[in-house]
Design a protein that fits this description.
transmembrane, transmembrane helix, 1 helix, about 70 residues, membrane, mainly alpha, single chain
Length: about 70
């Protein structure tokens, strides 16, 4: 009798543990996924700003070369 009672308690504890793990996974995982996508978005925005800054610097360098060429002639 005590063995079957212990088995029932163990199975109840295992089921409760699985429910806790499942609920925490459902609640926590989307938040971490959102945080991951947010960090990817931040990195991408910094990268795109860096690319646009490099394009601006290149266009300024080209215009300064044109000005230097015009002044040299």
């Amino acid at each position: 009798m005590s063995v079957s009672c212990e088995v029932v308690w163990v199975s109840w504890l295992v089921e409760a543990g699985l429910v806790v793990v499942w609920v925490s996974w459902v609640v926590v995982w989307p938040r971490s996924l959102r945080a991951f996508f947010r960090s990817c978005q931040i990195v991408f925005s910094f990268f795109s700003r860096g690319v646009s800054f490099l394009k601006l610097a290149a266009s300024l360098a080209n215009s300064s070369e044109i000005v230097v060429t015009v002044l040299a002639t």
